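Quick start: read one record
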Amino acid sequence: MADRYYSNADEGQRFQPGTTVEAGAVDQKFDEVTAGFQQVAIDTDRSLKLPAGEGPQELDATALQRRNRAVGFDAEGNLVLMAGFGWRGDWATATDYALNEVFRDPASKNLYVVLKAHTSATIASDLTAGNIELAISVAEIEAAKVAAIEAAGNAAASEEGAAESEASARAAASFKGLWSSLTGALAKPASVKHSGEYWELLNDLPDVAASEPGVSGDWTSKTVLTGSATGPIDMAGHPLTAAAFSAGRYDLASAVGTDTLDLAQQQVFRIDASVNRTLAFANAPGANRAMVIVVRLVGSAGAVTWPAGIAWSEGTAPELRTSWTAVTLLWDGIDWRGFVSGGEDL
């Protein structure tokens, strides 16, 4: 027993063989031994202990292996030497790694954390064995970086597009008519029509007549569509064929003499109403879409039966004018609404 608990090293204090001792001296010795055991109990109560029934826990590491390490427990609760997330640099094979150490894969640049003390073999095998775990994936970071750059670019493009749309809207709201009819100064925002195209003013002009759209750099063309379609184009589920889609200064195609109004082909129709007509829609738009069509009926001798479900502005289908009648139909995404937009009697 250690001296700090009980010492019987003093020869003069020992009981000698063949001698008689007093009971008080014996009691004193027992008291000293008891006090030593009590001190042992106090120190034991304050120490780190494992539950009864578990085997002994020992650290068999050498002093060199123990340096700069902390004592802790691994995933199985066993006593181990561990590092406080110590950085080990680039990974190497056949190297001892301690719990919580961090290293970098020199090939992928990924960072790994050690889950169990081990001697490294390969990163793949150590992952499979549960010795290490991927902490930071460089590939995921690069992907996130690319996505962030793309999102920033899209946001910038959207902002630029919004600014351009705002400028165009201001110019459209300030449409001045034919350029050839204007004189004097002209300030932004403004737009004009010239040579069959619409132009937006870029710079304030002291004399608009001296700056011709298409010739001067003071203007930019706002014609949206040019060229022509060569195949079917699907717009929100409504195909436009090459025959029906003419992209230039004219937005809408027109049809003559048909009872079926094919809305995928035209939105302007001229109908001979000198004979009876029963009109029907084909390829009508779906819900939450919008469309305006114009039907010009020539003559009035025939009776016109309109498609069912049209809500007429006058409460009933229009009466035909003797020469021609123009009817505008609006699909607002829910109902068809119709009204007479023009007409003439002979």
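The mean pLDDT is 81.
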